[in-house]
Amino acid sequence: MMLANETARTNPNMAVVFIVMTIVSVIFTITLVIFILACKTKEKKCFQEKLKVAFYPINVCLLLMSLSQISMCAAEALYYLSTNNEVTVNTGIVVQNAKLMNAARSWSATTFKITYLEYSYFRTAPILKQAYSDFANPALIAVHVSALFLTLPSFYVTSALWYTMDSNQIAIRNYIALATFVWLLLIDSCFLALFVKCLRSYKDLVEVDSQFLIISRFGIVAGILFCCVIPFTYLYMFFGSEYYYCVCIFLFSTIFIVLFGMKISLHRDTLRKQKELRERINAAKQNTTIGAGRCVFKSQDTMAFDDDNKV
Asked: In whole angstroms, what is the distance from residue 106 CA to residue 127 CA?
């Protein structure tokens, strides 16, 4: 996410907008942390187990997404505050501030894109390992290589701190940034397509797990929203309007909300399954007749229930 140029933007209202967006992003982050600590680690007795659950890859990805939103909004707010400061303007450091904020925004957007990619992989990894085991390792390699590719625009923008880009260099920078968005969308679409294909392949043979349905539905919504980011990114980079940038951040926030909503829905579905399992076990205990080789419920179910309580 970069400007088409380094000209000063001095709309005072935008500072307020980005301050509000920063506060909202902080609230999202706090909510996520509370959810992880309250719902995901409370059943763990050992501190190391709590720590392991808290830093599970999915949780880390969501947390980094949220922190990157804070960084993007805060950098933009600081820039607008500095451009409306007479001392800053009169000392001629507005352009340097623009470069610094561009670098901060770029690395924040890169962090969001990489963590979104990692999240997409972890979402699809179980399916890949079970149904398409031959593609599991190549997919992981593709994710790591793509992560390196996604950092190129940020390195380009950071290098501009020591010199002024001409129009050709700015155009190259913008095209590289746009290419990273398109590439990320393609990778995410491939993951999602494999996931949906697997669901369709097995829906007639076995009952589709409810959590697979939750992941696929939320994943499709997130993919559509990320697809919407691309045209607004193009408009922002080549026309430089801060309103397009606001739309991009709003879409980023919406994607985060969708993925966070997926996590909450999966947690609620797990609780529902645990409740149903308890009810089945209790019903089985009441109907069990102790006799010659007769038992209504299997020990495997009890073991699953006990193991789930330990998790």
From this structure: 32
For residue 85, the SS3 value is: coil
Helix H or strand E encompassing 282: helix 242-287
Q: What angle is formed at CA 54 by the lines to CA 274 and CA 225, rounded to 5 degrees? A: 85
What contacts 255, CB < 8 A, 6 or more positions away?
A: 65, 116, 222, 225, 226, 229
Tokens of 33: 């942390």
pTM of the predicted protein model: 0.76
Cβ 47 vs Cβ 80: under 8 Å: no
CA 140 – CA 268 distance, rounded (Å):
29
Residues 65-78: tens digit of each pLDDT: 999 999 988 888 88
pLDDT in tens, 143-153: 888 888 888 88
Which two structure tokens, joined as six digits, stand for 157?
């923008």
Cβ atoms within 10 A of the Cβ of 278, count? 13
